[in-house]
Amino acid sequence: MLDREGFRPNVGIILLNHRNQVFWGKRIRTHSWQFPQGGIKHGESPEQAMFRELHEEVGLLPEHVRIVARTRDWLRYEVPQHFIRKDARGHYKGQKQIWFLLQLMGRDCDMNLRASTHPEFDAWRWHEYWVPLETVIEFKRDVYQLALSELARFLPKPFNGGGGGNRYLRGSMRGAQSSPADFADACEGLGWPQASNAADAELASDEPGGLNSIGAK
Question: What is the pTM of this model?
Answer without folding.
Answer: 0.75
